[in-house]
UniProtKB/TrEMBL annotation:
Protein name: NAD(P) transhydrogenase subunit alpha part 1
Protein source organism: Thermomonas carbonis
The Alanine dehydrogenase/pyridine nucleotide transhydrogenase NAD(H)-binding domain, residue ranges: 147-309
Protein family according to the UniProt entry: Belongs to the AlaDH/PNT family.
Enzyme Commission number(s) from the entry: 7.1.1.1
Any Gene Ontology CC annotation: plasma membrane
UniProt keyword Protease, yes or no: no
GO molecular function, one term: NADP binding
Length: 364
């Protein structure tokens, strides 16, 4: 029997992305799946119902009912999870451990959940890496927000009224979002620096035309992530960064540690030392912010310095963000399908290490 895949409209406030596009719908149908969608699932990303129908989807009021696989961007509500059939597969950015009620709903219904944020960071998994694809859009949008808020041009201009010097932009954090921010700020003509406590990011920053800001503090950790700094290292970093920020026009913060609150890198005292008219855009606002003064979802003025804490930036680029996210999801779901039916290969580390609740080795 063909596997049934259900996709409902996203319920989170302001969420415009979708986990299924007409492109990936067509591929799933070609793989032998039956795809059911709720009317309007793609409206926020400008994918009309008819495009899904043309791709082979069936429009229904309750696509999750009886579905073998449910796709989502953000976690469904507890009530929605409780309504899924026992043993259904749930795929998306689920963060089950962030909400005890959500975790209980998943376990009590026997849902086989695949939180894609848990996906191993391996070469084979890159095509399924939703964190990277969505961070790229967030990094891009962050610089556009900064350019809009800044009372300056980003590029150098030579005009009849004189020469305008380029804005000095500092990107804090050189992960996917930070590197995209560096590339975007460079394209806009700014003088760009990148700062990261992992020294191995120097080459990546410089390859995009940025200058690596070396504050003499290294926090290289395992798996490509930064380790926590010691008190002495943090104090030295803070002192040198504070001095450097006095000459910066725009700061974009992107530093994050998976599963933990965002590290506080820019203190209130640092902000007080920045020039009037400077701008801070904090991508880490959703997990507390890299700037001490960041207010999630708000743009504030602190004695002449503008501090923005935008949320869910990937949703601002909903169409391309959805295309990337949906391809990530399709590539992962393909691992669950065999001849159009649902099949689990627990010898595949991508399944075994992503599934939640985690399975005992004997079950894997």
């Amino acid at each position: 029997m063909a596997v049934n895949i259900g996709v409902a409209r996203e319920s989170a406030a302001g969420e415009r992305r979708v986990a299924l596009t007409p492109e990936t719908c067509k591929k799933l149908v070609a793989a032998g799946a039956t795809v059911r969608i709720e009317s309007g699932i793609g409206d926020g990303a400008y994918f009309p119902d008819q495009a899904y129908v043309d791709a082979g989807a069936h429009v229904t009021a309750h696509p999750r009912e009886g579905a073998d696989i449910v796709l989502c961007v953000q976690p469904p509500s507890v009530a929605a999870i409780a309504s899924l059939k026992s043993g259904a597969v749930l795929v998306g950015s689920l963060q089950p451990q962030a909400d005890p009620a959500r975790a209980e709903a998943i376990t009590s219904r026997g849902i086989v959940a695949f939180p894609l944020e848990k996906l191993p960071r391996t070469t084979r998994a890159q095509a399924m890496d939703v964190l990277s694809s969505q961070a790229g859009m967030a990094g891009y949008k962050s610089v556009l927000i900064a350019a809009q808020l800044a009372p300056r041009f980003f590029p150098m201009l030579t005009t009849a009224a004189g020469t305008i010097r380029p804005s000095k932009v500092l990107i804090v954090g050189a992960g996917v979002a930070g590197l995209q921010a560096i590339a975007t700020a460079k394209r806009l003509g700014a003088s760009v620096e990148g700062f990261d406590v992992r020294p191995e990011t120097r080459e990546q920053i410089e390859s995009l035309g940025g200058k690596f800001l070396d504050l003499g503090v290294s926090a290289a950790g395992e798996g490509g992530y930064a380790r926590a700094l010691t008190d002495e290292e943090r104090a030295l970093q803070q002192q040198r960064l504070a001095d450097h920020l006095k000459g910066i026009d725009v700061v974009v913060c992107t530093a994050a540690v998976p599963g933990r609150p965002a590290p506080k890198i820019i203190s209130a005292a640092m902000v007080a030392g920045m020039k009037p008219g400077s701008v801070v855009v904090d991508l880490a606002a959703e997990t507390g912010g890299n700037c001490e003064l960041t207010q999630p979802g708000e743009t504030i003025d602190s004695k002449g310095v503008t501090i923005a804490g935008p949320l869910n930036l990937a949703s601002m680029g909903a169409q391309h963000a959805s295309e990337m996210y949906a391809r990530n999801v399709y590539n992962f779901v393909s691992l669950l399908l065999k001849d159009g039916a649902l099949a689990f290969d627990w010898d595949d580390e991508l399944l075994a290490k992503t599934v939640w609740p985690e399975r005992a080795p004997s079950a894997v």
